[in-house]
Design a protein that fits this description.
Number of strands: 11
Number of helices: 11
CATH class of the largest domain: Alpha Beta
Bound molecules: pyridoxal-5'-phosphate
GO molecular function, one term: transaminase activity
Radius of gyration: 21 Å
Largest sheet: 4 strands, mixed
Family: Belongs to the DegT/DnrJ/EryC1 family.
Keywords: Aminotransferase, Pyridoxal phosphate, Transferase
CATH architecture of the largest domain: 3-Layer(aba) Sandwich
Distance between the termini: 20 Å
Order of helices and strands: HHEHEHEHEHEEEEEHHEHHEH
Structural class: alpha/beta
Protein name: Aminotransferase DegT
Helix content: 25-40%
Strand order of the largest sheet: 1-9-8-5
Oligomer: single chain
Number of domains: 2
CATH topology of the largest domain: Aspartate Aminotransferase, domain 2
Strand content: 5-15%
């Protein structure tokens, strides 16, 4: 048994759900954008996006990415430009939309796609680009001004913001006002966990209404299929969990930030940064999903993970191997990926969950000293 597991999801408890479940039982509406789903969407748009644009819930972020890409990609384009340093869902979503992933290197400090390199390849590939899919790595408040310009130049942008729900920077929620699509995940392992679920946001209301139609079998108002749709709807039960999660999200964010600051304290105290360990340069208020850290140049993440595991502490290697080194994606084109390869061989993610104590954090950091 692991003394300290990597994650210990803590979804809202039965008691908080009861009033919402009673509503479902009274209405007998279980899905199809029912009343709880509608209330959740209205609250999110109001409380997180200042009623700018529109949102639609989805049954998970992978489906959300597929729907967003399919509704905005340029019809003659072939490539979806994205980082290789992301979760497999990003390139998979592009493949399901009939596109080829084209992997672009990341920056060494914030681990997000290298904008300069991306610009060069947008020039080179021209009309062959169908869409650009940046990933806001580990929920950092990635500056979207550059991607707004890309979107306005006619290359649609879908942001993989899987870990970004609840992220704020300069008072605004991540993605607010963005004219492309921003896709959030509500998977149990994310900070806003409901089990399975997600949300697509855009400042472009027409785009969201197309996505909403596409996630309901492509039905028009007369229930005839007019677009290549699928079933991407979130159930009323998940909407119940989502609503009760909204009620306590501020406390959840605080708990995650507290654990993160304990980590920083311990890492400083034990001089990790002086010894060549690095953490992500990140912006904004982040409801940390986990604690990524890079071991010094010349060391391998797997060795540290192994050493921790011997002390019954579970750590993971997000995102290693990066997508372009995985069997399904190996054949797809890419820019030089030096930084991606350098980071991914050294990165590990340490445990981070809401009920962790300072003592847990001390044990983990102590365990890394011994590694
Ligand atoms: C979790 C995650 C996804 C997938 O989200 P689901 O809701 O599980 O489909 C996609 N991209 C990234 C970067 C993620 O971390």
């Amino acid at each position: 048994m692991m003394k300290i597991p990597f994650l210990r999801p803590n979804l809202v408890k039965q008691e908080a759900l009861t009033p919402y479940i009673s509503e479902i039982e009274a209405s007998r509406i279980y899905s199809n954008f029912g009343p709880l789903n509608t209330r959740f969407e209205h609250r999110v748009l109001d409380e997180y996006f200042d009623n700018i644009g529109a949102v639609t819930t989805v049954n998970n972020a992978t489906i959300g990415l597929i729907l967003a890409i399919s509704q905005c990609k340029r019809p003659k384009g072939k490539y979806a430009l994205m980082p290789s340093f992301t979760f497999a869902a990003t390139p998979l979503a592009a493949l399901w939309c009939g596109l080829e992933p084209f992997f672009v290197d990341i920056r060494p400090d914030d681990w997000c796609m290298d904008e300069k390199l991306l610009c060069e390849w947008l020039q080179i590939l021209g009309d062959q680009v169908a869409t650009v899919i940046p990933y806001a790595a580990f929920g950092t408040n990635m500056d979207l001004d550059f991607y707004r310009q890309v979107n306005e130049s006619g290359v649609p942008v879908v942001v993989d913001a899987a870990a970004s729900f609840g992220v704020t920077g300069s008072q605004n929620h991540f993605g607010r006002g963005f004219p492309g699509c921003v896709v959030f995940s509500f998977h149990a392992t994310k900070s806003f966990g409901v089990g399975e679920g997600g949300l697509v946001y855009s400042a472009n209301k027409d785009l969201i209404s197309k996505i909403r139609q596409a996630e309901n079998f492509g039905f028009s108002a007369s229930r005839e299929t007019t677009l290549p749709g699928l079933n991407g709807k979130m159930s009323e039960y998940n909407a119940a969990i989502a609503l009760s999660t909204l009620d306590v999200f501020v406390q959840k964010i605080k708990a995650r930030q507290q654990v993160h600051s304990w980590y920083l304290e311990q890492l400083h105290q034990k001089n990790f940064f002086g010894k060549g360990w690095t953490i992500q340069k990140s912006e904004g208020e982040i409801p940390y999903q986990f604690m990524p850290i890079c071991c010094p140049e010349g060391r391998q993440n797997v060795d540290v993970i192994h050493a921790l595991s011997n002390q019954n502490i579970e750590a993971r290697t997000y995102f290693s191997p990066p997508c372009h080194q995985q069997p399904l994606f190996i054949r797809y084109p890419n820019t030089d990926l030096k930084v991606t390869e350098r980071i991914s061989s050294r990165i590990l993610s340490l445990p981070l969950w809401e009920e962790m104590t300072n003592q847990d954090v001390c044990l983990i950091v102590e365990g890394m000293v011994l590694s």
